[in-house]
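We modelled the chain as a single entity of 256 amino acids. Its sequence is:
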Amino acid sequence: MSDYRFIRFEHSKFRADVILNRPAKNILNYEMLEELVDALGQVREDETLKVLTVRGSGGTFCGGIERQERTAERVGLTMPLFTRMFDYLNDIHGITIAAIQGEAVDGGFELAAFCDVNFATESAVFQHPEITFGHYPPIAAAILPRLVGRNRAVDWIISGDKISAREAYRAGLVTRLVREGELKEEVDRYANKIVKYSAPAVVWAKRSIDSSLYSPAMEAMRTSESTYMVELMKNIDPHEGLKAAIEGREPKWREM
């Protein structure tokens, strides 16, 4: 792809920038995921790349995956593409930075959590609401326990509660809190500092850290996706819950 509809992609020497650009909340649909995978595919084997930033336009990071993309007819197409995005992010040689303002919800939460460094404004909000419509976030189930601890990950995923940026910072998910209106400036300052460093030093420092963390995490991610697709989605509840959410009514869960 050369022309993108739902993202902006900028690639210069040592740095790449991905900007989510689907008003109003940068909610991910299949075409947007295709564009993200295409853009990441252009830089995933670039050994000179030192920094990749991901941010949202319009005052919010990402409102998650469009619910229609989770229906029985669509999920078999969308979920493998969604997982491939994380595979490509994992292949990036340089540091990945998420710039979070507004909402990081559902798949947007997972995208932010997967990046190496997270900058967030103090008003940013994180949430995994999937449990409310009979689903769960498979990427988060694999990586959140490694980032914030098992019990906190269970709480965040099972409660569906909103998490403030300050709470996420205390938990270790958010790396740096920044003032409102200063997010891009602070991310650029950090990125420009990394760009001045040795590419092999940046790459191998990251790989050494990831060897103890993300090798098992990536395996867990694939197991979690398989469980989501093979075990959860063969039940009635996730389909009823999603239909109810789309229709704006309370779900009627299957009685055990």
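As a brief sanity check on the tokenised model: The longest helix spans residues 199-231. The beta strands are 7-12, 15-20, 51-56, 95-100, 103-105, 117-121, 125-127, 162-164, 176-178.
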